[in-house]
Specification:
Elements: E1 8-11, H1 20-34, H2 41-60, H3 66-80, H4 87-101, H5 111-118, E2 123-128, H6 132-141, E3 150-153, H7 154-157, H8 164-174, E4 181-185, H9 188-198, E5 201-205, E6 217-219
Parallel strand pairs: 1-2, 1-4, 2-3, 4-5, 5-6
């Protein structure tokens, strides 16, 4: 199904291998409880998840800073659910969220099984828009760090997916041609269209129950990779 022989596979991390939503929910449960923020966790998370995606899109597009992302996503969530939380407490929660997030280590089902299957056959790498200070901690905490030869993040590259430069940096660092490279990720805009624009072959992990498309093959579970590669 791929036009050229694949030698290198590049994965997104959050929402693709590392179960961001589950780990994020556990982090919020911990820090909201410890800081005695009296909100219904389910209501908070239901409101926060789409707001977080909205602000991450702005961050990818360089329309807000990292500090604005961390503050505004919490501020808007609390305002939306009618919770009165001071700016000082929001700032504290923003810091504690980042400090605690990587301590939770849930992966998507079959992640380790699939990495064990792929690693003897392909060189494996990561391209992530996540923050440099916690992405390595996530990989190490989940015991998958050693599967990957090259780990590129947006702070290293100076740009975020889908900008071509982050993909080009990954290819240059891994010393591989785009036609022999496969990008696997959950975000159609950032991972799939971004990688395709540079010449990667692509595989869309449909982590968010998105509608079908013809851009590339979609999978609904990581275990399906074993039937493709």
């Amino acid at each position: 199904m791929f036009r050229d022989r694949i030698t290198d596979i590049f994965f997104d991390l959050d929402h693709t291998l590392w179960d961001f939503e589950k780990n994020s929910a556990l982090t919020f449960k911990k820090i909201l409880t410890e800081n005695k923020v009296n909100v219904d966790l389910e209501d908070f998370l239901q409101t926060y998840v789409p707001i977080n995606l909205e602000f991450w899109k702005l961050y990818r597009e360089d329309r807000i800073s990292k500090s604005d992302l961390r503050y505004q996503r919490l501020k808007k969530t609390f305002d939306s659910i009618g919770a009165k939380v001071s700016d000082d407490l929001i700032d504290l929660l923003a810091v504690e969220y980042i400090a605690n997030l990587s301590s939770f280590t849930h992966l998507f089902p079959n992640t380790t099984d699939v990495l064990n299957y792929l690693s003897p056959k392909y060189r494996l790498h990561i391209i992530t828009n996540g923050f440099q200070e916690i992405q390595d901690k996530k990989l190490k905490g989940a015991n998958i760090f050693n599967y990957f030869d090259v780990i590129i993040n947006s702070e290293m590259a100076g740009v975020k997916k889908p900008h071509p430069q982050i993909f080009k940096l990954a290819l240059e660092t891994a010393k591989v041609a785009p036609k022999n490279s496969l990008m696997i990720g959950d975000n159609l805009e950032a991972d799939i269209l971004g990688a395709k624009a540079v010449g990667f072959q692509t595989l869309h992990f449909n982590a968010h129950s998105e509608p079908p498309h013809e851009i590339c093959k979609m999978i609904n579970s990581l275990v399906e990779i074993k039937n493709i590669l």
